[in-house]
Amino acid sequence: MTKNEFLRETLNQGRLFTAMAAHNPLSAKLAEQAGFDGIWGSGFELAASYAVPDANILSFGTHLEMMRAIASVTSIPLIADIDTGFGNAVNVRYVVPQYEAAGASAIVMEDKTFPKDTSLRAEGRQELVRIEEFQGKVAAAVAGRHDPDFVIIARTEALIAGQGQDEALRRAAAYEEAGADAILIHSKQKTPDEVLAFINAWNGRVPLVLVPTAYPELTESDIKALRKVGIVIYGNHAIRAAVGAMQTVFAKIRREEGIREVDKTLPSVQEIISLQGDAHMGDIEAKFLR
């Protein structure tokens, strides 16, 4: 079974697909080792790793090449976060097959204007495009894929933009009509009430996608019980974990003016070498070096 087929079959069978965010191949490998079903190729995390805002500052090429690098070292599906599609429907039609060729199994595209502003930024610019315009972008994405198992996920930011549940439902239904395979509904409320109300009201045929960053008390068991959600994405936990760990270690080294104590708490150099694929390189050396 291919990565694309695995993701598609999971959605078709109504099982919950779990995806962990990654911003480079190493974090993606660690997510796979931890047992997640897939990788979320996070635009937020990639931007953070470059220390720039998640506001379409990085180029399409930078994001695409990172997705290609992640897909090349993992055996689980990659869901690429392509923000607003890097332009209008014409851009989307050209972009989607490139992500498919790079090894992604799905893309997520949101209905905000370009350049976007990250959804959870306080007082951010949350401006949405017309429904008809985004329907065209969804249809262009569907037309651009070569493999019918490649999944197109439409993300509505209506709740993020404060436009209410009725508008969110109207947009979600329109995007399903345009050919989306799943609908990502996002909220920045600190409780899941707003999202749960949307889920209860959703009568569409396609599954929903949740990113419970702002309402972490909603567990996978809770989400499965809703029976309408196909994918849960942990959207920024890799970069937050990395930043927190580095802050702690760096501060300890400065405080102790050396690495004698902190070195005992870190993964060994050999563990890192193993993650780099040393065993595979050893096989190649044994077979081909003369």
Automatic annotation (TrEMBL):
Its EC number is 3.11.1.3. CDD domains: ICL_PEPM. InterPro entries: ICL/PEPM, PPH, Pyrv/PenolPyrv_kinase-like_dom, Pyrv_kinase-like_dom_sf. It comes from Caballeronia jiangsuensis. Belongs to the isocitrate lyase/PEP mutase superfamily. PEP mutase family. PANTHER family: PHOSPHOENOLPYRUVATE CARBOXYLASE, PHOSPHOENOLPYRUVATE PHOSPHOMUTASE. It is an enzyme of class 3 (hydrolase). Pfam families: PEP_mutase. This is Phosphonopyruvate hydrolase. GO terms for molecular function: phosphonopyruvate hydrolase activity. Keywords: Hydrolase. The lineage of its organism: Bacteria, Pseudomonadati, Pseudomonadota, Betaproteobacteria, Burkholderiales.
